[in-house]
């Protein structure tokens, strides 16, 4: 496997929800934000090589549906294999695949497909990545790889045998912005507005490329830090 993929287990009050996530560095995991209910107190775990490890959510973008989780190096007793972002533009018809956990299973599965759309606009998301990968419950948060095993997307939604995510360039900028500006990230629980610098990065690099976006991609209300109480 080209990167370490984990099962996400979220306990919210007496309810449980599950998804998939993957490492992008030694102590940060990416997953789909909708797996984690921000309206209730959550306890978040990862299933990693048969060990159950508690992690914390450090930031999220509700519009892009991306959450960044954090664990501590001392909790992981092995070398982490991290996802590598693709530097090559994707093309329609290109082969792709995902690896993740189904809702009630603790064994990884692999599903394949092709890129069927790389540019669309609607009122909430724009330039969505759409694939023919057929998803099942629990796959949310799984990485999407190209034939070179490089990361080209994250599964955050599925409908009618199609799945995909929001504009992946925006997702990459969101992730990079937080990981390179750790002073803006706090540890746990109360939601606060994101620093303007992150919004500026998104607007300056992305808004210039897409002239017909309906509404703002990033606002103070849909990008959040998690602030320690």
Structure description:
By secondary structure, this protein is mainly beta. It folds into 3 domains: 5-75, Beta Barrel (Thrombin, subunit H); 95-168, Thrombin, subunit H (Beta Barrel), CATH 2.40.10.10; 169-227, no CATH class. It is built from 2 helices and 15 strands. It has a 7-stranded antiparallel β-sheet with strand order 11-10-7-8-9-13-12, with no helix packed on it. Strands 1-2-3-6-5-4 form a 6-stranded antiparallel beta barrel. Strand 1 and strand 2 form a beta hairpin. Helix 1 runs antiparallel to helix 2. The N and C termini lie far apart (38 Å). Residues 120-125 and 183-223 have low confidence and may be disordered.
Q: What is the CATH topology of the largest domain?
A: Thrombin, subunit H
Fraction of residues in β-strands: 35-45%
The SSE string, one letter per element, is EEEEEEEEEEEEEHEHE
Give the oligomeric state: single chain
Strand order of the largest sheet: 11-10-7-8-9-13-12
Distance, first to last CA:
38 Å
Helical content stands at 10-25%
Uncertain segments of ≥5 residues (pLDDT<50)? 120-125, 183-223
At the first level of CATH, what is the class of the largest domain?
Mainly Beta
What's the pLDDT, averaged over the residues? 75
Calculate Rg over CA atoms.
17 Å
* Biggest sheet details: 7 strands, antiparallel
CATH A-level architecture of the largest domain: Beta Barrel
Shape: globular
Number of strands: 15
| Total of helices | 2
Which structural category do the helix and sheet elements fall into?
A: mainly beta
Number of domains: 3
The CATH superfamily of the largest domain is identified as Trypsin-like serine proteases
């Amino acid at each position: 496997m080209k990167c370490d993929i984990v099962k996400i287990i979220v306990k919210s009050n007496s309810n449980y929800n599950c998804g998939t996530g993957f490492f992008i560095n030694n102590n940060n995991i990416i997953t789909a934000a909708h797996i984690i209910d921000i309206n209730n107190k959550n306890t978040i775990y990862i299933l990693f090589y048969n060990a159950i490890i508690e992690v914390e959510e450090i930031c999220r973008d509700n519009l892009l549906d991306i959450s960044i989780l954090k664990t501590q190096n001392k909790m992981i007793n092995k070398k982490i294999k991290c996802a590598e972002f693709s530097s090559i533009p994707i093309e329609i018809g290109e082969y792709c695949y995902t690896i993740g956990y189904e809702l009630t299973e603790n064994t990884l599965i692999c599903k394949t497909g092709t890129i069927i759309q790389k540019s669309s606009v609607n009122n909430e998301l724009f330039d969505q990545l759409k694939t023919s990968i057929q998803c099942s419950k629990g796959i949310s948060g799984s990485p999407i790889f190209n034939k070179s095993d490089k990361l080209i997307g994250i599964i955050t939604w599925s409908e009618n045998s199609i799945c995909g995510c929001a504009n992946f360039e925006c997702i990459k900028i969101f992730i990079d912005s937080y990981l390179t500006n750790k002073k803006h990230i706090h540890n746990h629980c109360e939601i606060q507005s994101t620093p303007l610098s992150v919004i500026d990065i998104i607007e300056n690099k992305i808004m210039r490329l897409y002239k017909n976006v309906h509404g703002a991609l990033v606002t103070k209300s849909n990008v959040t830090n998690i602030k320690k109480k």
